[in-house]
Design brief:
The complex is a heterodimer of chains A (509) and B (70).
Chain A (H helix, E strand, L loop, with lengths): L2 H43 L2 H21 L4 H9 L2 H35 L6 H30 L4 E4 L4 E4 L2 H5 L2 H31 L4 H36 L1 H8 L5 E2 L3 E7 L12 E7 L2 H7 L5 E2 L2 H6 L9 H24 L2 H14 L18 H30 L7 H27 L4 E3 L3 E2 H4 L5 H32 L6
Chain B lengths: L2 H13 L3 H24 L4 H4 L3 H13 L4
Classes of the chains: A mainly alpha (509), B mainly alpha (70).
């Protein structure tokens, strides 16, 4: 069976699972806090309208939670079967955060979720409110552990590779836990969830206003949604800036792909808008864009906090730029091949029981370990991710993020002026921005994951080495079944949601 | 709040479910498909099912990491 075909199906399957899974996650992250805020307003004021609003949004939260719950489990199945080399190689670095997440998710969310949903009039108002907040915090803590694991794949730290076991062993738990990449990734991802939750509340409220139904409820919900949305959009922008800064420090190839930079420069500008030149190739002198608008100096400043800073382009990173201290991919490939050779020698020496040779091989391996994954590459150009996909999804995500910020400001302004009902285009825009939120979030994941290709673990393991060599027919079949299952779940979610929304806040839960 | 409280909370909660009944059906069917069909048919083979000893798993992965590739 063709190895490449099997890898590609495994990769497509994982992408499909992750994309569908992340349709459910962000609304859980965001809506849980919005429900908690509304319930806090109810407990503080005693106003039953807030209780009604809390119960309505809580029901929608429950629908999303129930349909999305455990969809991430399939990714864990895939790690074990389709990505066996990867799963073993990452060792307890990946296992520990996921285990904590599993325990937290099970105990914290399921316990307090029951009180939150079933406990009205069974427990005190204060305890019910505490449970609602703990569900929100628990959901976000679960996300933290998963993003710590993902952050490690983007920037592997806090571990030592053991050539005896072929596993990375945790050397410093806190280096893994508090990795700047993981923290930035967590903050940016949960912030995107908060914005999606806000867009959802604002958009559904806009629908009620357009239908002239439950006006007080809709305006109140919209006020909470837009306020939370505005604050979290600002936070999303700041955490996005920090994420991009971390990418500049640790994944410069990804940054060059995000911005379409071929030739590095000092005082590099940030691309506000542009179309890639389809004829452009690595190393040639063609202009990378057929049209672009740039903000001068901004990329150097955002990427390195210095407007004079040199931002390396793809040509520099692939072919090297010694005058700027940029090592070529070819040099790293050679270093990686030394690391691989040392690992082979270590095994040979172990079989022969030659301790001195083992020590020598291990020393060489440790020296060249940072380039270990490069040893599997054949050409320097292979370090470049799919450029157009990374570039356009990044710019679409940023543009949508700016639109959401503007939308929340406009909605809040009109609500405060008590004129929101007069501006139907704004209400329609709010309603149609719900799917845009999901598109932006998925674009973010595409930038993060496609942008770091060819790596499963940055610089250490390319995707094709991470995969198990399975029969591609088998993976193709499970891919198709996943596609059917997830599409059915999505249809079920939308159908149940729409039905519940149509019933409105006075209906049953 | 003792154990009986939690049992009663769940029992009463489930008995008064509206949309929740549909949701529980969805959850049940989904878990059945995932855990029985997918896990049983497509994801039943991992290093842990193929090998008993940790050293065997290590050797298998080391073979994959160090084998000659074109």
């Amino acid at each position: 069976m063709n190895e490449l075909a099997s890898v590609d199906w495994s990769r497509a399957q994982f992408a499909l699972t992750a994309i569908y899974h992340f349709l459910f996650v962000p609304l859980t992250l965001g809506l849980s806090f919005l429900v908690a805020i509304m319930e806090t307003l109810y407990v503080k004021t005693g106003d039953l309208e807030w209780k009604k609003a809390t119960k309505f949004w809580m029901t929608l939260f429950a629908i999303n939670f129930a349909i999305g719950v455990a969809t991430g489990l399939i990714m864990e199945f895939e790690f074990g079967t389709n990505w066996a080399n990867y799963s073993w190689f990452v060792g307890d670095i990946f296992g520990a955060p996921l285990a904590v997440e599993g325990i937290l998710a099970f105990f914290m969310e399921s316990t307090f979720f029951a009180v939150m949903f079933f406990g009205w009039n069974k427990v005190s108002k204060g305890f019910h409110l505490l449970s609602t907040w703990l569900v929100a915090i628990g959901s976000n803590l679960s996300a933290f552990w998963i993003l710590v694991a993902n952050g490690w794949m983007q920037y592997p730290v806090g571990m030592v590779f053991n050539p005896e076991s072929a596993r990375n062993e945790m050397a410093n738990f806190f280096d893994v836990l508090l990795s700047p990449v993981a923290i930035a990734k967590f903050l940016h991802t949960v912030a995107s969830g908060y914005v999606i939750g806000s867009l959802f509340v604002v958009g559904i409220s806009a629908w009620f206003l357009l239908k002239q139904r439950h006006l007080q409820f809709a305006k109140r919900s919209m006020l909470v949604g837009a306020s939370f949305g505005l604050l979290t959009s600002i936070f999303l922008t700041l955490s996005g800036d920090e994420s991009a800064y971390q990418v500049a420090q640790h994944q410069p190839v990804k940054l060059a792909a995000m911005e379409g930079i071929y030739k590095g420069e000092h005082r590099a500008g940030l691309l506000a808008f542009g179309f890639l030149n389809p004829d452009k190739k690595l190393g040639d002198d063609l202009h990378p864009f057929i049209g672009d608008i740039e903000i001068p100096y901004m990329l150097s400043f955002l990427g390195y906090r210095d407007i004079e800073a040199f931002v390396p382009g793809l040509d520099d990173l692939v072919y090297g730029n010694p005058s700027k201290g940029v090592v070529s991919a070819q040099e790293r490939i050679e270093s990686g091949k030394i690391a691989l050779g040392a690992l082979k020698n270590y095994r040979e020496a172990r079989k022969e029981g030659n301790a001195a040779l083992m020590q020598e091989a291990q020393t060489l391996l440790t020296t060249h370990m940072p380039n270990f994954g490069y040893g599997y590459l054949e050409r320097p150009e292979q370090i470049v991710p799919p450029l157009a996909l990374t570039f356009y999804t990044f710019h679409l995500m940023v543009s949508l993020g700016m639109w959401f910020l503007a939308l929340f400001i406009i909605v809040l302004f009109l609500l405060m002026k008590r004129e929101i009902m007069r501006y139907k285009p704004v209400l329609y825009a709010a309603l149609w921005s719900i799917p845009l939120g999901y598109i932006a979030a998925e674009c973010g994941w595409i930038v993060a994951e496609v942008g770091r290709q060819p790596w499963a673990i940055q610089d250490l393991m390319p995707v094709r080495i991470a995969a198990t060599n399975l029969g591609s027919g088998n993976v193709m079949l499970s891919f198709s079944l996943f596609a059917i299952l997830f599409t059915l779940l999505l249809i079920a979610e939308i159908k149940i949601m729409v039905k519940q929304i149509a019933i409105g806040p006075d209906g049953g839960h | 709040m003792n154990f009986r409280f939690w049992i009663a909370l769940y029992q009463e909660g489930f008995s008064h479910l509206g949309v929740g009944k549909t949701l529980w059906k969805v959850i049940f069917i989904k878990l059945l498909v995932m855990l029985v069909l997918f896990k049983g048919l497509f994801f039943n083979e991992t290093l842990h099912t193929l090998f008993d000893e940790e050293t065997q798993k290590s050797e298998y992965v080391l073979d994959n990491l160090t084998k000659d590739r074109k």
